[in-house]
């Protein structure tokens, strides 16, 4: 895939959130704290699941991979975005812009498959409990994670297959904090209507259909849970409600942005920031605050770390 097209434009200007210096200082501090909390929160979940034997189950294996993807999703553009708050010239090279788009769709596609896999895991655990360990074997879970990355790669490549060779010869201002496909293709010097329709079919409609399927899946699980009244059912309901909250927070902004790529709403910029920064931050909170096993394991890991640190000093 050739990145060196015949465009006059060699860099794009990211407009950011505000041109006021005082606000940019505030955004720099605010997003630095949010990004640090996102990385540390997801990293803590990954380390906790890896180090705690009782969390070596299919659900937590998938959760650990989700945290890794969230940590990556928050990192593909946020460090540059934070640095740009202190810069007057918020520019990104053509190659850098394409790279951001690639990783955004790679990680987004992988997370969609992983969220579907987690829904499947909960469905089997609640609706077919006697066959749970047989169906959701370690081999199956590893296969689902590998599949999520394969789908992510193919999705990202399909989005860039036509974009990299578009001619950009005029405007180069992207009305966002990072490069995203709907905003970048609007700057091309040719009619991009067909490309926009392709983007709707491969991003917007796929996200919408997957979200509808997930809603149906969790509805079936909820109906099954409500037919039971045991403590285990209460725990299952708490787990599924946490999963569904995470699904809604991720798919909501994606559907809004990619189902209507021809129309630029003022809220699009906020939604882009939300699903690439705040959703990865909220996922650790959602999954840990309502999960006693994860919270207890985090406390054990923290106590071991604090006991080990003095020996290093």
UniProtKB/TrEMBL annotation:
A GO molecular function held by the record: G protein-coupled receptor activity
Origin: domain of life: Eukaryota
PROSITE patterns referenced in this protein's UniProt entry, alphabetically: G_PROTEIN_RECEP_F1_1 (PS00237), G_PROTEIN_RECEP_F1_2 (PS50262)
Pfam families found in the cross-reference section: 7tm_4
Main subcellular localisation: membrane
Keywords: Cell membrane, Disulfide bond, G-protein coupled receptor, Membrane, Olfaction, Receptor, Sensory transduction, Transducer, Transmembrane, Transmembrane helix
One GO cellular component, as annotated: plasma membrane
Localization in the cell: Cell membrane; Membrane
G-protein coupled receptors family 1 profile domain sequence ranges: 41-287
Membrane topology: Multi-pass membrane protein
TM spans (from-to): 25-47, 59-78, 98-120, 141-162, 193-224, 236-260, 272-289
Family to which the UniProt record says this protein belongs: Belongs to the G-protein coupled receptor 1 family.
Functional note: Putative odorant or sperm cell receptor.
Name of the molecule in the record: Olfactory receptor
Source organism phylogeny: Eukaryota, Metazoa, Chordata, Craniata, Vertebrata
């Amino acid at each position: 895939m050739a990145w060196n097209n015949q465009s006059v434009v060699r860099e794009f200007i990211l407009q950011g959130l505000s041109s006021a210096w005082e606000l940019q200082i505030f955004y720099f501090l605010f997003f630095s704290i949010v990004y640090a909390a996102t990385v540390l929160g997801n990293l803590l979940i990954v380390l906790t699941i890896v180090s705690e034997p009782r969390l070596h189950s299919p659900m937590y294996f998938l959760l650990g991979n989700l945290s890794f993807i969230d940590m990556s999703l928050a990192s593909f553009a946020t460090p540059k975005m934070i640095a740009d708050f202190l810069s007057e010239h918020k520019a990104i090279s053509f190659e850098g812009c394409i790279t951001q788009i690639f990783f955004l769709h790679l990680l987004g596609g992988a997370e969609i498959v992983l969220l579907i896999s987690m829904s499947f895991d909960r469905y089997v655990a609640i609706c077919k409990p006697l066959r749970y360990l047989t169906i959701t074997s370690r081999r199956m879970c590893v296969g689902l994670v590998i599949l999520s990355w394969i789908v992510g790669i193919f999705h990202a490549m399909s989005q860039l297959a036509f974009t990299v060779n578009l001619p950009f010869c005029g405007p180069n201002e992207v009305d966002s904090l990072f490069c995203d496909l709907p905003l970048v293709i609007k700057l091309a010097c040719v009619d991009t209507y067909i490309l926009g329709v392709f983007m709707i079919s491969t991003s917007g409609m796929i996200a919408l259909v997957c979200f509808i399927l997930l809603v149906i899946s969790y509805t079936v699980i909820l109906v099954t849970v409500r037919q039971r009244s045991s403590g285990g059912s209460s725990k299952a309901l708490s787990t599924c409600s946490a999963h569904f909250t995470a699904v809604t927070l991720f798919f909501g902004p994606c559907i809004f942005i990619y189902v209507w790529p021809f129309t630029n709403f003022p809220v699009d910029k906020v939604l882009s920031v939300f699903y690439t920064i705040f959703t990865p931050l909220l996922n650790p909170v959602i999954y840990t605050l309502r999960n006693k096993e994860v919270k207890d394991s985090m406390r054990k890991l923290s106590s071991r770390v604090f006991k080990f640190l003095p020996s290093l000093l």
